[in-house]
Design brief:
single chain, mainly alpha
Length: about 230
């Protein structure tokens, strides 16, 4: 049996599944005026979590760091996709080249969707917390772009689900189990120091996630009187 090591810390896993639930809720609640306040609040928190994940990409454990991702290179991504289609797993504990590129894409889309939502206004029931601070033309543009980004994010998620199904059923890679347990095949790599399951990483993530989410909601949700 292939040796496994701690790869995904609790904050990477918690963020992953929280974003899944958050996006599902946003897609359901987006067109319902009754839930617009909750929709906006969840959008602020999703944006805050993206900021935390970016910070965690520099100060988190080994495989959470962007330095462990293959650089976002079109040629490497093409080669990585070719390996997927020909059922040749990339023997890395963390993200493959195309997997790392998907992380960057998801972070960018989620943040831009949240940002445009916070900058939108329908001039009747909803004014985003950032809308009073920017020119009317930008508010109008944000309102136009927000649903487009939301649909694009949904389409990318669909592609992601197809890719995960392929990896799990055809290539026999334990990606879902890895995102649940945090452990993945080592492929002769080390877990890093401190490793992803250490108490240091847990406490560090707890402090910085609370600070990031607290400041995001404090500034946008409370100071701007959302």
């Amino acid at each position: 049996m292939q040796k496994t090591i701690p790869v995904w810390d609790i904050w990477v896993r918690l963020g992953h599944w929280s974003i899944v639930l958050g996006i599902v809720f946003q897609q359901i609640s987006g067109g319902d005026a009754e839930y617009i306040d909750v929709h906006a609040t969840v959008g602020i928190l999703l944006g805050g979590w993206v900021l935390f994940r970016i910070l965690w990409g520099f100060i988190g454990p080994k495989y959470a760091r962007f330095s462990s991702f293959p650089p976002p290179n079109p040629i490497r991504a093409k080669e990585s996709l070719k390996r997927v289609l020909t059922r040749q797993p990339e023997k890395v504990p963390g993200h493959s080249a195309i997997g790392g590129l998907a992380v960057y894409l998801f972070l960018m889309l989620i943040f831009l969707t949240a940002l445009t939502g916070m900058s939108s206004s329908d001039d009747i029931l909803f004014d985003g917390p950032l809308a009073p601070l920017i020119p009317a033309a930008m508010v109008s543009l944000a309102g136009t772009i927000h649903p487009i980004l939301s649909d694009l994010l949904l389409a990318i998620i669909g592609v992601h689900l197809i890719a995960i199904t392929w990896h799990v059923t055809v290539m026999k890679e334990p990606l879902i189990r890895g995102m649940l347990t945090g452990r993945k095949p080592a492929f002769e790599q080390e877990p890093g120091d401190p490793h992803a399951f250490s108490s240091v990483i847990f406490l560090k993530g707890l402090i910085y996630s609370l600070l990031t989410l607290g400041l995001t909601y404090g500034i946008i949700g409370i100071y701007l009187r959302w």
